[in-house]
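Quick entry between incubations.
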Amino acid sequence: MPRRPGRTHPLLRLLRKYPVGTGGMVLIATMLVMGLFAASVAPYDPVANDFGAMFQAPSWAHWFGTDAYGRDVLSRILYGARTALLIGFASSLLGASIGAVIGVISAYLGGKTDLVLQRLVDILISFPIIIVAMAIVSIIGTGTGKLILAIAFSFIPRAERVVRSSALSVRQNVYVEAARAIGAGSTRIVFRHMFPNVIAPYLVLLTAFLGQAILLEASLSFLGLGVSEPTPAWGLMLSGAAVDFVQRAPWMAIFPGLAISLAVLAFNVLGDALRDALDPRLRT
Amino acid sequence: MGAPVSRYIITRVLLIIPTLLAVAVLIFILVRVVPGDIVELRMVLGGSYVTPQVIAAERARLGLDRPLWSQFIDYMAGLVRLDLGTSMWSGAPVAEEIAIRLALSLELAILATLIAVLLAIPLGTLAAVYRGRWIDQAVQVFSVAGLSIPSFWLGILFILFLLTTFQYLPPLVFTPLLKDPRANLAQLIWPALAVGYRYSAVATRMTRSAVLEVLREDYVRTAWAKGLGRSMILRRHALRNALLPVVTVIGLEFAFLIGGLVVTEQVFNLNGIGKLIVDAIAQRDYTLIQGLMLLVAAGYVLANFIVDLLYAWLDPRITYG
Amino acid sequence: MSKSRAAVLVALLLLLVAPVVPLVAQQPRRGGTLTYIVTALPPSFDGHRETTFAMLHPVKPHYNYLVKFDTQNYPKVVGDLAESWTASKDGRTYTFKIRQGVKFHDGSTLTPRDIKATFDKIIFPKEGVISARQVVYQAVARIDTPDPQTVVFRLRFAAPSFVEKLASPFNFVYKADILERDPTFYERNIMGTGPFKFVEYVRGAQWIGRRNDDYFKPGLPYLDGFRALFIGSRSAMMAALKSGQALIEFRGVSPAERDDLVQALGDKISVQSQPWNCNLIVAFNTKKHPFNDARFRRALTLAVDRWGGSRALSQIAFLGPVGAVMRPGSEFAMSEAELVKLAGYGRDINAARQEARRLLREAGIPDGFTFTLKNRSIAAPYEPAGVFLVDQWRQIGLNAQHVQQETATYLADQRAGNYDASVDFACDFMDDPDVQLAKFVSADVSPLNYGGYVDRQLDALYFRQSRTANAAERLRLVRQFERRLLDEQAYAMYLLWWQRIIPHWRTLQGYKTTTNHYVEPDMEVYWLSQ
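Done. Structure below.
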């Protein structure tokens, strides 16, 4: 279809090229808004107990029903977006960044340092993420801040591996050899050549981790190792009474699960679109 | 396979041992850094009677009052004899505690893998072959959903569905497959489906991109130009080479199924390795935790190794220097 | 005989027979296997070592006791292996006559020597043998077996409730020969005289026992066998009960779970409920500011509406009865008239909270003061209690941070004094001030005192009440103790006692709920009607 050059709005172009990815971005933006403005949008206080209104089915008064303490499920979901995004962004950024830095350093230095570091990563990577996170939580304790640290730590080895292989491919790069030949300092090489090459996989990693972080919080809270009551957090909402009374009050389990699925879905499709956009070679 | 390959294999095998040793050391230290004490946990809860002397005596019996280096040497000596020690909680050999749960976890992992492969390979291939068409879109939506839905939530929904629609509850106690296949499968099919769906999502996407990659290869185009039928090409060239990355993904994910199904096992009340890990950590049972972590790490290392072997077998183009 | 006289005779006969008929209809039926749920895994199988119900529930049916609590008439103590007993006038000698002809599962005969060996292990454990409740029997000087039918306990001083203490459900009677050979045998093996023989234990899955045909009580047990399913997740437990795969769980369910079962099963299920000898306490770390100030502590306990909380929380958790240190409903319980005089137990919560705010001001605590409340991350009933407490303290302007921890971490913090306020609990199998008050004597006397305080008045009161034979005097001393602990000094506060709710399928007969989950299951008297 012939297009008038330079006249189509960039957003529309984006939508046409990556319809699903843009959809994901919209979802994430909605979550952000929900989380930031939860205080104004939520109809009820998410932590106020109301023992007269326990286990109520969805109604006009409570769109998503109430839970075992009479708390409004919708309000808790809205506030829960805040917790999910906070934990998601913080732990992904922390984990991916630390992993990236280690990966680049290891790739650049090579030799013995690289060998030793890689053996360490070998060991850490041989455990499922949930087990690493559980172990860290056992050591440092529960709570939002500590959870972020635990999840971030479990991401580091995988981030390191991905970034290192990108950085390695640069190392043999002709430009780097040339730069060395003319006497360019190592910092310069690292920054000018290695880092740009790893930005793309780093961003893709971030989006993958975002989704995984939310799932991890859900799993850990389910096991009683995540955030504490009465903090509104989707994973915490799924545990305990939600499971015990799933026949009597299924909305307690359905809505938080939906929220988690949609959030992770949004991050996943965003990540796919990013990957397609950033590396035409990988484009499928 | 020639000499270079067998050398590669031997090197890999030799590397496994130091890796596992390093894991053993790391876990030994890590586990003792965690706050909390198994003896207190066992004797103090709500108990109005237990005196500090009793607690000290029990700690001595478990060897917890000995200096760290002494405990470490005992542990290492045991490992050399392939003796994982006894569980501090129950007093039973760690190997025995693990063996009982391993049967269930292995079977669940195999079932989930079967489901994943049966879904992923045909779906992924179809999506690649009919790229861009509605079937591709449908498969992509199906797999990205599989990645996003928490598998334990899916499990909760399954149970809700079974209870509400059929008033049916899967059997709660594990019966070995050979003893009673019906009861065995009736219990495990549901968690296998919940887990397998997610697993298949990963594998489907991998299959799709691998097949796409291969379809673009020159030699496939040549075969196409030569007039070979599409299915012929698929079968003889595309699939064989696409299998490599798919096998990698399946192999590595399988290893994680042995210990990683922590939450799913809670939801379905399965007496598996994941549940044992959660219990062992909650109880601060050092010897059991150590044994379990070694198992998980060994599983991963083994899976890696087998995948590498398969690589060597499936693609003669790969050289080993 | 005239017609009318015959009619009267028949009527009289019918009247005599009528009450008997239902009894005859209710004759216990022999046969069947009882499947029940145990919600945690047993550590070892040795009753003398362990303190958890997870060991008792599957293992208990294999053993007998010297004396035991009669679950049909709790808290009455009856002889099990003891036919009868007498106590000397000075209360320092207890003589038990032992039944003859009782056989262990391996065929050997029980003698007083086995009883002595058992209690020697409990009271005077050898090197390397752990006895969890050793300190309970410190009054015992020695145990004698003067003849093949008698066991004699000689005490250093007269101790009230001694026989009740002997009836502890953890005091399985073991075989002397085995204990001599290997005192740790019973940790991983079963060999008793009980109504059921051991069949198998599949770790993490199930425990199976079958009838002991040579059991010394004629006609017992009724059941052919039992099967204990280990189910950790509550939803799986509920599903098992709903589907009839299991008939009962011997610990207790929450009111919401009970309602769920009743709704699902209607009249197939029967619900029994008893006050539970378990409670929730909040311990204050008196070594930390401002918990070292009695005014602050009093404010904390005044702010909590126990009566309202009991109504609200009893709907979602198995919390309920309001009481002080001695269980409400027990012989040592405070009457309501006495209770409402204690700080935090008044009926007028607004007045109490005003007083609390005044105390806070006096103590110089700013509005919005923050502290942590540490709690176990277990749903029932700790979580609702924590959520409730945070809400109550919010009402007097205090900001309590609820921190839920894994039990191991929680215990470590408690031991180390690394907490501000902490939700604690106590569960016992008998109501005895010696037991319930022991937690609260000075920290340098009782290792169970986590508050870190030293109070010689409490110590003196405790010591005196444990040596008093006069019941009225003992009660008076206990009251003084409670008032000083909860009201004057508010070293700790009792939140609520628990309510035990046991729903079970009607097909399970002969089961009677008691006040605690340690003396159950009393498997020999249970039977299945279908």
